[in-house]
């Protein structure tokens, strides 16, 4: 797959922000066709009218039977349900991937009923916006984003390479492969914990006290991801609960360390924590 195009029929399940953005980015690569399925008929109409997809369906079995590449851009539970309900409608040899933020439990469930002629290669584009829906989809949302592939032993090498090439072709800068288990462990810290912190800040009673005049960049940055899809993130938290609870407890210990340093007026410890955090942050950017 390259910028000259590729002879694939693509089928996207879920035409929200991510599914719509996939369709727009993949359109530049000149595939044979891009079809989509969604429960929201208005999203389908908009996607067709804007030329994001060629055809939109609320059922879509016939288009699915012709699809070489299927992208599951919806919630974990809906991914499993869709695949179970349509397991006999996939084209033999089809490559299936997803956009989900958790992997191990999802892939284990899917592989438990997936026939040998189908290959599910886990994929996680680290991209998004606070807003949701097809109206805010963008063909450049993946530009310079990270992309994580979570292969298993049952995946064919050529299909893993296909997903990697696709990720790079839509604009992702760094593409890595990691086990589903390790993915979920790391994501619980780098993605899920920041959402916990942002939501906790906005859940404070102080927010009700007209604090807008007292907020600056630090508060806005820290709470940006508190604008959250409650259904999706509840699923993600529950499906990765062991890892997330571990990270919450570790974070609580860090908070406690700072609290104790303040209470005991331990300037050396507090400065050490600050300097260590500063050095680590500078190393990242």
TrEMBL record:
GO terms for biological process: tyrosine biosynthetic process. Keywords: Coiled coil, Membrane, Oxidoreductase, Transmembrane, Transmembrane helix. The chain crosses the membrane at residues 6-25. InterPro entries: 6-PGluconate_DH-like_C_sf, NAD(P)-bd_dom_sf, PDH_C, PDH_N, Preph/Arog_dehydrog, Prephen_DH. It holds the Pfam family PDH_C. It comes from the Bacteria. Pathway: Amino-acid biosynthesis. Gene3D superfamilies: 6-phosphogluconate dehydrogenase C-terminal like domain, NAD(P)-binding Rossmann-like Domain. PANTHER family: PREPHENATE DEHYDROGENASE (PTHR21363), PREPHENATE DEHYDROGENASE [NADP(+)] (PTHR21363:SF0). Belongs to the prephenate/arogenate dehydrogenase family. This is Prephenate dehydrogenase.
